[in-house]
Structure formats: structure tokens, C-alpha cells
Amino acid sequence: MDSTERNENLKEVGAGGVSRLFALLRTLGEVSQDGERVTQLAQQVGLSQPTTHRLLRSLMEEGMVEQDARSKRYRLSLE
């Protein structure tokens, strides 16, 4: 991903989105190593499931979060 694509992603997030991203990262830091499903993460953070999924995808693109292909659970990445 080049810087132009990253800037486009940041426009989607916006200033309010930064606090949402950090809330999501904090929540991911508190879940087990097995990770958590998007529905549970959304409930814990207090966001809608589509918003949480969009934020998770952005974090995955940056290498901060990974998703287990089998369980569909998200967790912090080791990168």
C-alpha cells in the first residue's frame, strides 16, 4: 500500500475515528490470545458491527491486527 492509499484510508477514519481506533486497539489488547469475533468487539467498544469491521480492516492493512482464517477471530498482530 502506498502513501496515497493510506491517506485515503485516513480520510475515511477522520478525527473521531482516531479515538475509535485506539479504543479498539485497547480492547484487542485485553482479549485472550485466541482473539475475539467482530460482534463481540463491537459490543465491547460500543460501535456498530460495520464500523468495527471497517476499522479492523484498516488495522489489518497496517499490520496491527490479524484475523484467524479458521475461527474468524481478530487479535493484535505480532508485527
Brief descriptors of the model:
mainly alpha, 8% strand, single chain, globular, 3 helices, 79 residues, disordered N terminus, two-stranded antiparallel sheet
Provide a compact summary of the structure.
The chain has 79 residues and is mainly alpha-helical. It is built from 3 helices and 2 strands. It has helices spanning 3-30, 38-45, 49-61, and strands at residues 65-67, 74-76.
Average pLDDT number: 84
The biggest beta sheet reads:
2 strands, antiparallel
| Category by helix and strand content | mainly alpha
Spans with pLDDT under 50 lasting ≥5 residues? 1-13
Helix coverage percent: 55-70%
The rounded distance between the terminal residues' Cα atoms is: 16 Å
Instruction: Note the run of SSEs as H and E.
Output: HHHEE
Walk me through this protein's architecture.
The protein is mainly α and 79 residues long. Helices cover 62% and strands 8% of the residues. It is built from 3 helices and 2 strands. It has a two-stranded antiparallel sheet. The model is unreliable at 1-13 (pLDDT under 50).
